[in-house]
Amino acid sequence: MTSADLVSNGLPLAFSPAFIAPLIASPVSALDDGSARALLDIHGYVFLRGLLPRKQVLAVRENYFRQFPSSFVKDGDWRRAAISGEEPQGLPPYGTRGHPAYEFVRPTAFVEFAEHPLTA
């Protein structure tokens, strides 16, 4: 197995349990009972598996990963987007004009997904 440099938003990320660990799912009821804020404070995130319709989430993922060359996904599976390990060459930094993520988050369809009533 080969090692890879880990980055997040273009910055180096130490391979440490402080940064790399399984997500801890919270119950959707955390939104109603007020515990979501405490979970956010504890974990730094609130992971609500199944909150949004799976079909809609997979469609958004597929649309995002289709912005990259086909060599970026393993076995051509755009919906699940298993990453091949082949980083596309010549991409501008993440979040800057010209990077697929920059353009992806601007159309109305993504804004509507991001502002889904269940996430408000």
Account of the 3D structure:
With 120 residues, this protein is mostly helical. The protein folds into 2 domains: 22-50, no CATH class; 52-120, no CATH class. 30% of the residues lie in helices and 3% in strands. The protein is built from 5 helices and 2 strands, in the order E-E-H-H-H-H-H. It has helices at 30-33, 36-43, 54-65, 100-104, 108-114; strands at 7-8, 11-12. It has a two-stranded antiparallel sheet with strand order 1-2. A hairpin with a 2-residue loop joins strand 1 and strand 2 (11-12). The longest helix is centred in the middle third of the chain and has 12 residues, at 54-65. The chain starts with 6 loop residues before the first strand and ends in a 6-residue tail after the last helix. The model has no long low-confidence stretch (mean pLDDT 80).
Q: TL;DR of this structure?
A:
The protein has helices at residues 30-33, 36-43, 54-65, 100-104, 108-114; strands at 7-8, 11-12. It has 120 residues and is mainly alpha-helical.
Question: Which features characterize this protein?
Answer:
120 residues; mainly alpha; two-stranded antiparallel sheet; 5 helices; 30% helix; globular
Order of helices and strands: EEHHHHH
Shape: globular
Number of folding domains? Answer: 2
The major pleated sheet works out as: 2 strands, antiparallel
Mean of the pLDDT scores? 80
Strand content: under 5%
Ranges where pLDDT stays below 50 over 5 or more residues in a row are none
Q: What is the helical fraction, as a range of percent?
A: 25-40%
Q: Evaluate the radius of gyration.
A: 17 Å
Give a count of the beta strands, DSSP E runs of length 2 or more: 2
Query: Count of helices?
Result: 5
CA(first)-CA(last) distance:
42 Å
* Strand adjacency order, main sheet: 1-2
